């Protein structure tokens, strides 16, 4: 019996090494990784530039705490701000911590501006924001809340992407609106760019803040550095993580100047957040992602993969109902239980990720090319064919 908490429904697979878009077991079996550790290994496994950055830093300094300046932390913050709407950054270790900081920053902003009663956030049903007590309350899903006592107060959920419904949920205690540009765990449900624009206008009209959870959608996943860029607008606060560390634990909360300046000394903190190892890797990730042509290529590969998935849907309408998502954040809404497709793909030595609404997520490394896309298409075709054969009438 394992000494670990039984909190994961793990497969029996264990991997010994990785390279690019592939993982290898100790016995040498090769798997095409279209899960990327749930959108984390954005530059693939063992990317040479990331390996060099981490090993070089590991020989010099691992940890000093935030009691002292960390030059690489300052550098990464400056680069993130230069590449986004933001003026201030707080570094954490995970997406949940980044969202937690975002929630606190929204409350603190109103407190510092003479409206401490404004602490509530409007959120959306089906969202996923993390596993802390506050972030499961923000997500509001019963399966995540069960058994953990009273739900943390301060979150008002809206069931549809309807601007009138959002406006109706805003009251005198509302601090802001929190949303994912694409609901990843929630079934790869896309939010229209027009709706995001309407949220920006509504937040401005009501004097509240707009918060984006780009933990999964950010860091190039949709073909732009951040997904909201497609909508031509910006939030006041944004949480990022996952791809920011390329596999090393890094999270960040990005804010405008007026929000960031409300987070004064002692108002928030982290022992490990922004440590030299994480910052070395984060800067290395940006070196790659901000290089000329990188994000354009992600968008091109995403379009090519989506076209192949659309053809797959046409060939197997009894298996695939809909193709969702953007860039290299795509999902297959299934007509069979998504676990069956997941298992059929694993039998073809391809790794994917489940999501809500009976969806299988495809989250390949952003460095994939046409060869990996064609290999994935062949494995998907074989998996669908196997499922169709099993479900065909005798």
User: Average pLDDT across residues?
Assistant: 96
Helical segment count: 13
Instruction: Write out the strand line-up for the largest beta sheet, numbering strands in chain order.
Output: 4-12-11-10-7-5-6
Query: From the structure provided, what is the oligomeric state, counting identical versus distinct chains?
Result: single chain
Q: Return the structural class.
A: alpha/beta
Helix content: 25-40%
Biggest β-sheet description: 7 strands, mixed
Radius of gyration: 21 Å
Poorly predicted ranges (pLDDT <50, ≥5 residues)?
A: none
> CA-to-CA gap between the ends?
41 Å
Topology pattern, helix = H, strand = E: EEEHHHEHEHHEHEEEHEEEHHHEEHEEEH
Task: Please describe what this structure looks like.
This protein is α/β, with parallel strands linked by helices. It has helices spanning 36-39, 48-58, 71-82, 95-112, 133-139, 142-145, 163-169, 193-206, 257-260, 276-289, 294-315, 338-347, 370-391, and strands at residues 15-19, 22-25, 30-33, 88-92, 120-124, 155-158, 174-179, 182-183, 189-190, 209-213, 237-240, 251-255, 320-326, 329-334, 350-351, 353-355, 359-362. Strands 4-12-11-10-7-5-6 form a 7-stranded mixed β-sheet, sandwiched between helices. A 4-stranded mixed β-sheet has the order 1-2-3-15. A 4-stranded antiparallel β-sheet has the order 13-14-17-16, with helices on one face. Strand 1 and strand 2 (22-25) form a beta hairpin. The radius of gyration is 21 Å and the shape is globular.
């Amino acid at each position: 019996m394992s000494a670990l908490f039984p909190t994961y429904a793990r497969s029996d697979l264990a991997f010994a090494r990785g390279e690019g878009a592939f993982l290898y077991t100790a016995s040498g079996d090769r798997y095409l990784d279209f899960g990327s550790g749930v959108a984390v290994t954005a530059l693939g496994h063992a990317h040479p530039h990331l390996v060099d950055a981490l090993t070089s830093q590991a020989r010099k300094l691992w940890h000093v705490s935030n009691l002292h300046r960390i030059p690489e932390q300052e550098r990464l913050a400056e680069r993130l701000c230069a590449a986004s709407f933001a003026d201030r950054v707080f570094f954490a270790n995970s997406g949940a911590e980044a969202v937690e900081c975002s929630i606190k920053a929204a409350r603190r902003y109103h407190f510092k501006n003479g409206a401490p009663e404004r602490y509530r956030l409007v959120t959306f049903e089906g969202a996923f924001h993390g596993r802390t007590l506050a972030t499961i309350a923000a997500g509001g899903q019963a399966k995540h809340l069960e058994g953990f006592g009273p739900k943390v107060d301060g979150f008002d959920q809206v069931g549809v992407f309807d601007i009138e419904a959002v406006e109706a949920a805003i009251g005198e205690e509302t601090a802001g609106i929190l949303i994912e540009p694409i609901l990843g765990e929630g079934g790869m449900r896309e939010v229209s760019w027009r709706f995001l624009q309407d949220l920006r206008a509504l937040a401005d009209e009501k004097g509240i803040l707009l918060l984006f959870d780009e933990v999964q959608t950010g860091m190039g996943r949709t073909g732009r550095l951040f997904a909201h860029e497609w909508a031509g607008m910006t939030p006041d606060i944004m949480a990022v993580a996952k791809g920011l560390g390329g596999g090393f634990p890094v999270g960040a909360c990005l804010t405008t100047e007026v929000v960031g300046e409300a987070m004064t000394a002692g108002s928030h903190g982290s022992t490990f957040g922004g440590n030299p190892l994480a910052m070395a890797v984060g800067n290395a990730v940006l070196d790659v992602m901000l290089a000329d042509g990188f994000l354009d290529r992600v968008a091109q590969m995403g379009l090519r993969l989506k076209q192949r998935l659309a053809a797959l849907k046409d060939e197997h309408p009894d298996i695939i109902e809909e193709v969702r998502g953007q860039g290299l954040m795509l999902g297959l809404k299934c007509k069979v239980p998504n676990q069956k497709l997941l298992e059929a793909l694993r039998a073809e030595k391809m790794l994917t990720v489940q999501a809500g609404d009976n969806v299988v997520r495809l989250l390949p490394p952003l460095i994939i090319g046409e060869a990996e896309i064609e290999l994935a298409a062949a494995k998907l075709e074989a998996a669908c064919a196997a499922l169709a054969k099993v479900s065909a009438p005798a």
